[in-house]
Amino acid sequence: MKEHFIKKIKLQGPITIADYMSDCLLAPKQGYYNRNDVIGTKGDFITSPEISQIFGELVGLSFVDYWYQCNKPVSPILVDVGGGKGTMMKDALRAIKQVDKILFKKIQPIFIEASLKLSQLQKLNIPKSESFNDINKIPKGFTMLYANEFFDALPTHQFIKVNNRWHERLIDIDSNNNLCFIHDTKSSPFEHIIPEYLKKNIIIEFSPAIINITTSIIKKILEQRGAFLIIDYALNEKDEFGSFQAVRKHEYINPLLFPGECDLSTKVDFTLIKNIARELNAHVYGPIKQKIFLKNLGIDIRCKQLIKTNPNKKDKILNDYYRLISDEEMGNLFEAIIITSEEKVQPAGFQNE
Fold first, then answer.
1. Contact at 8 Å (CB) between 156 and 133?
2. What is the pLDDT of residues 282-298, one digit of tens each?
3. 34-69 burial code (b ≥16 CB/10 A, e <16)
4. Global pTM?
5. 69 sits in which H/E element
6. In CATH, which of 2.60.40.150, 3.30.1380.10, 3.30.360.10, 3.40.50.12710 is domain 2-340?
7. 3-state DSSP assignment of residue 30
8. What percent of the chain has pLDDT over 70?
């Protein structure tokens, strides 16, 4: 897609990082998520559901518990926001079927997906599922949503301080026709809405897309009843220079080198999400580290069960387990937060929140 961006920049001038991410990931023909095999061991990166079936199973069971605590509302809907290949939904539904066949028959699986390629894979994995590219198209019902590694791929703007004002970082082309970072010569109108707690950073990342999507989903669960679980890379105080990154063939690379051929992401501002939920008078639990969330849900017990029924796969099961909960792997890098409509219902996995 390099030629696409060279033409675009020559025609309209430097572009925002948000525009670059959006084109790279979702362009109809050349976009990264419309390519084959981008997720998994054969692709460029791997997500928790692709590592171990336990991940999706535990999330599925946590929603069973929530549905029970809410007195089994009619028309239950399970929504995967940005569901990859559908692996997590498949694992979640299998676990739900094991504990409550009636709920399994009632529940309506839905994907929110912008990639045509991935929506086709999702339908292949879950034939009875529906797929929409708009949250507002989710039908009415008791809505239980989860988003695993979804928010980190949403278009994000970056800002850098110049003479005490915040200027947007942009992408331009240099004298050799290579993509490069610059900053806008004028301060950004966004500087008046950037949260104060981010202004201690050298480079600020801010995503209006996260605000819009989070707000829409929270309003939906407050109206219809339900819960929204988010699990993702978490922005932290060490990310003072921003977190915009690219992964290709399981290695980090310069995000401007292979546009459309690598995964682009930024870490997720969980403080922003929590603040939005509170402003809308929803109930919030977390964020907590992924390892704590999974241990609270019983990952240790499920791991032992799997080893008992698959003794010849013990080493792989344990290796996958450690990848999910280890501080050096996903256990500490990822965080979980849940937003609910119910005041007196304690969501599974967040016992001490």
1. no
2. 999 999 999 999 999 99
3. beeebbeeebbbbbbbbbbbbbbbbbbbbbbbbbee
4. 0.92
5. helix 53-69
6. 3.40.50.12710
7. coil
8. 96
